[in-house]
Design brief:
With 146 residues, the chain is of the alpha+beta class. It folds into 2 domains: 36 residues, no CATH class; 86 residues, Sandwich (Immunoglobulin-like). The protein contains 2 helices and 7 strands. The strands form 2 sheets. It has a 4-stranded antiparallel sheet, with no helix packed on it. The chain has a 3-stranded antiparallel sheet with strand order 3-4-5, with no helix packed on it. The longest helix has 17 residues. The chain is elongated.
Length: 146
Amino acid sequence: MTELVPWRPLRDLKREMDRLWTEFFGRESLPETLNTEWVPALDISETKDTVIVRADVPGINPEDLEITISGNVLTIKGEKKQEKEEKGENFYRVERSYGSFVRSVQIPTEIDADKIEASYKNGVLKIILPKKEEAKGKQIPVKIEK
């Protein structure tokens, strides 16, 4: 089974630029932990009756999340808003990422869109997508002839 890895072109570009900077000047330009883009990490699992999607969305108000399904493509939209700066506060480092995001994933089976449920707890969005009856499959018993 192949591992799914999110594609983050800006992070890859930063790593390459840091490598070149280090080769030329002998020191790293920016900390490796700098995250130039933000998208929530997803876990997608499947049971006999449902597909379950969990998304890490800490710091986002659940009312600011938008979940849609079109065909078998699930889309999650939201925005992580930056906190207001305090007057007289000078930042030495800002590494937390903010901004809007859109994640779309293809669901591997037919979903009953009328029965989808979503919940939010401790920064984790959980979406339960019930499968359509025909997508669940049916086990056919084998008759033994004498």
